[in-house]
Amino acid sequence: MNAFDTTLATGPVCTDQAVVSAEAAARMVAAAVAHAGTLGIRINAAVTDAGGTLAAFLRMPGAFLHSVDIAIDKAYTAASFGFPTSQWMSLLAQDEALRLGIVQRPRLVVFGGGLPIRRTAAEGGALIGGIGVSGGSAEQDEACARAGLQAVGLG
């Protein structure tokens, strides 16, 4: 075996990984912003890949500046755990140690507006990123994030 082999005696060393394309990420944040316009709110929208690295970002003029990082962190949280950020409160209610400890973690957002991005069920449903929106209520933010997913056939 040489240094360029991609297998070990027991199997492959690497696997193919699906990622969010730049085009899809751009369409998602644009659709989230468009939906915010119909709601009469100004938002920040972010898409990350499965590793939490920013893939796309769009800020509406007049959107809250503090919401820039919140939108990015919602996408990061959804990508890193694989479920909507809105589910955190019910999870934390069941476990005091988790409630006290996890909220100390940087970049964790425990309110709505972040959704995981998954391949379609026909493609195996693999987690490929997260979309986060901040600027409206948690429900409005999640609706905008869902519009982003729908724009690429994932919602």
Automatic annotation (TrEMBL):
Gene3D superfamilies: Haem-degrading domain. InterPro entries: GlcG_carb_metab_protein, PduO/GlcC-like, PduO/GlcC-like_sf. Signal peptide: none annotated. This is Heme-binding protein. It comes from Ideonella dechloratans.
